[in-house]
Amino acid sequence: MLVVPLNWVHMHSSLFPDSTPSPSGWFTAHCDGGSRGNPGPAGYGAVIEDPQGRIAARLSEFLGIHTNNYAEYKGLLAVLTWAGQNDARQLRVVSDSELMVKQMKGQYKVASPVLRPLWEEARRLARSLEKFEISHTLRGGNKEADRLANEAMDKGMGRQVGGRPESGTSNPSSVNRLSSPLAKPNASSTALEGYVKDGVVHLLEGHLPDGTFVKVIRK
Length: 219
Fold this sequence. Notes:
single chain; Nucleotidyltransferase, domain 5; alpha/beta
């Protein structure tokens, strides 16, 4: 089978051209990821349809403290992993993350050391399929995936979902993977100086590992 590099792919072209269609047909996955704070409590959601347009799975997961781009990639990886485990050999992914879509196509470089390994794993999983396509949509085209991502964040933060206490899904085809809620901050504290730009805290010196809880005091 001829493998075509990702940076040769256009918006609606297949990564793996093949004149012989897969008997399974095309699966379509809408995936979305987000965070509240960027970085902040993050989660993803995804809806996968089989070739007949029926819902094959709903995926969601609370990820802890991460950026929205990290959550977008985790949603894509969840979809690709599901496809590999369920013999979905042809997969179309629809995402409202223009950054991730263009990075997957080789149109944007992946400079972030956090996103780079996720991108590499996504490329590896995509190449394991017979055919793979990824395209960008506006947020309105990903409503259910967005809803699942927000529900995952709500559950992970211990909030009520849709005005009701957290409960399990009633759809037997759904897959709902949620890690434990946010841990309470450690009683010990360290004072670090920094500034805020574009909603992100930048430290003047020192380093805070991922998952660290912070309290910002304005001066």
